[in-house]
Amino acid sequence: MSNTPNYDAKVKAILDGLVPGERVDRLTGEKWILSQEEIGWYKKFGAPPSMYSPLTRMKWLSAFRTSFEIFWNKHAFTGEPILSYVHPDIQIPIVSDQEWHDLDVGATPEYQREIDLARPVLEQCRDLVRVVPMGARREWKNIVNTIGVGMWDVEDCYIVFSTVRAKRAMYTYYCLENCEDIVQGTFVMTSQNCFGCTRIERCHSCNFALESRDCINCSFIFDCRNCEDCFGATNLRNKKYVLFNEQLTKEEYQKRLSEVDLSCRSTFHEYHKRFLQLVETSAFPENFNINSADCQGEYLSDCVRVRESYYMQKCTDCAYNYGSSGAERCYYVSSAYPASDCWMSAVQLNCSQSKYSAMCGNSRELEYCNNCHDCESCFGCVGLRNKKFHIFNKPYSEAEYWQKVDGLKCAMLDRGEYGEFFPFDVSPNGMQFSMSPVLYDVDEAEMKRFGAPMYDPDRGAVLAPKKTVEVPPLRSEDVPDCLAEVEPDKWVGKAFMDTKANRRWTVMPKEFAFYQSHHLPFPEEHYTSRLRGQLQLLNLPLWEQKNCVACNASISVGKNKTFTARKVYCTACYLKYLETR
């Protein structure tokens, strides 16, 4: 028996007349094909058809996915400075995570609202978001001596994001599964003592490794497996003592490597440029999927029937997903970790049957909810914990709840509102500081077309002195070329300005000590610029057709912003190519 019979009848009449065919995105003008399969998803979730293309929807949802930003904000009650992933100009009140965990939002009248059928529901949701306090950094459990956002089981970490089970990490995004001593790493799993690495797994003592696994003591490597003591190597398996793809003896390798001093920026730039040129001319597989033969997407591991998705692990029957693990039957979701039967939502942790909701955990049957946890059957709620049958944070009996939800959804459907996601000013990180511009290459002009607010990135700068006329920021180009010549008292802990990003930054003593011990150069950019640069080496969830350079078969591949002239092989031809290495 339906809990919302009036709405179900209304949406059924719409869906029964829906036919596959070409559609035009009402925001971007992009043409896209509505498939019979997607019509089936609408019917499964009781959702009206979207007026936006799949790409627009994923950009929108990813605007609610945190990236690697942290700012000084103000505590909602005391006005004291507090570190948060919420930009200080975004109208969301901030408290410490522990205070938020202890706050019973559902029992506080000032955080409850009456239903107003005459007003758009999304406006009423926005009103709640602007008064209900939110935890500053999404700290969940076992946070020891750490500063970061969206993390648990971390110890002695500094400026880390979406990092889980890690120790002594610094400037990381998606550093997972027992990592230790990782600095400036993105998408790193089960690795130790690595710097500047992107999408590596089970590596040790590697620098600037890309798309590699099970490697030790390697630098500037791409798509290498089980390699040791390699420097400047691509597409290798089970190799040692390779220098820019030249096989050497152990003695010759060590001799030539001893002449390289990466702690000098000029030397580092020389080898980094040479490495990128080497990768550009090396072989790329059509995707980097693992044990996901019946899937379509990029960076899929152990997945079944997953398509149009990106960076997924152990997911089944999903489409249009990003950054999910253990998800089942989820469509148009940016990060389900894990979740089941979710639709058009962002950051759903251990949730099921969520629709149009963001940043929720351990909950089921939520619609248009934001930052609710351990809840069931709630609609339009913000910041609730352990609640059931709530609308706009106000409790109802079960019978009242479903009757009012039925009326709300009918009113929303009549206004063309039901099926829309939250507006961008509801996002706590804003589209500008989310994963949307990182993954989908969304620029400022496109953000403005979306109607996303823009903020000053230098407001709330972390660990950099305030702007003053008396003490202007230093210039990184004035720092001595070689690290051995850098005087800590003059350059460490001082404010620099990243002019391209319009952001101040500094090098902390602990960070400088890492560069010294690992013979690495003094950085030249804000840490977000460095991480963004590494992520731009990856394939993106933007698909294009290419032809295999060996057999000329047409293959769908993720675009790459850095390696635009790469040579792409279909899977079968790539495996044959590896046999020749």
Question: What does this entry look like structurally?
Answer:
This protein is α/β, with parallel strands linked by helices. It is 23% helix and 31% strand. The chain contains 14 helices and 39 strands. Strands 7, 8, 9, 10, 11, 12, 13, 14, 15, 16, 17, 18, 19 and 20 form a 14-stranded mixed β-sheet that branches. The protein has a six-stranded parallel β-sheet with strand order 22-23-24-26-28-30, covered by helices on one side. Strands 31-32-33-34 form a four-stranded mixed β-sheet, with helices on one face. The longest helix has 18 residues, at 398-415. The chain is globular, with a radius of gyration of 25 Å. The model has no long low-confidence stretch (mean pLDDT 94).
Please tag this protein with its features.
alpha/beta; single chain; 23% helix; six-stranded parallel beta sheet
Number of helices: 14
Question: Biggest β-sheet: count, sense, barrel?
Answer: 14 strands, mixed
- The total beta strand count reads 39
What sort of overall outline do the alpha carbons produce when their principal axes are compared?
A: globular
Mean pLDDT: 94
Low-confidence stretches: none
Q: Tell me the fraction of residues in β-strands, as a range.
A: 25-35%
* Distance between the ends: 62 Å
Instruction: Name the structural class.
Output: alpha/beta
- Using only C-alpha atoms, the radius of gyration works out to 25 Å
SSE blueprint and pairings:
Elements: H1 5-16, E1 21-24, E2 31-34, H2 36-45, H3 54-62, E3 71-74, E4 81-84, E5 94-95, H4 97-102, H5 121-129, E6 134-135, E7 143-144, E8 147-149, E9 152-155, E10 158-161, E11 164-167, E12 170-176, E13 179-189, E14 192-195, E15 198-201, E16 207-213, E17 219-222, E18 228-234, E19 240-243, E20 246-247, H6 250-257, H7 265-280, E21 283-285, E22 296-301, E23 304-313, E24 316-325, E25 327-328, E26 331-336, E27 339-340, E28 343-349, E29 351-352, E30 358-361, E31 364-367, E32 376-379, E33 388-391, E34 394-395, H8 398-415, H9 436-440, H10 444-450, H11 488-491, E35 496-498, E36 503-505, H12 509-518, H13 527-535, E37 539-547, E38 554-560, E39 567-569, H14 571-578
Parallel strand pairs: 5-6, 7-9, 8-10, 9-11, 10-12, 11-13, 12-13, 13-14, 13-15, 15-16, 16-17, 17-18, 18-19, 21-39, 22-23, 23-24, 24-26, 25-27, 26-28, 27-29, 28-30, 31-32, 32-33
Antiparallel strand pairs: 1-2, 3-4, 19-20, 33-34, 35-36, 37-38
Helix pairs in contact: 1-8
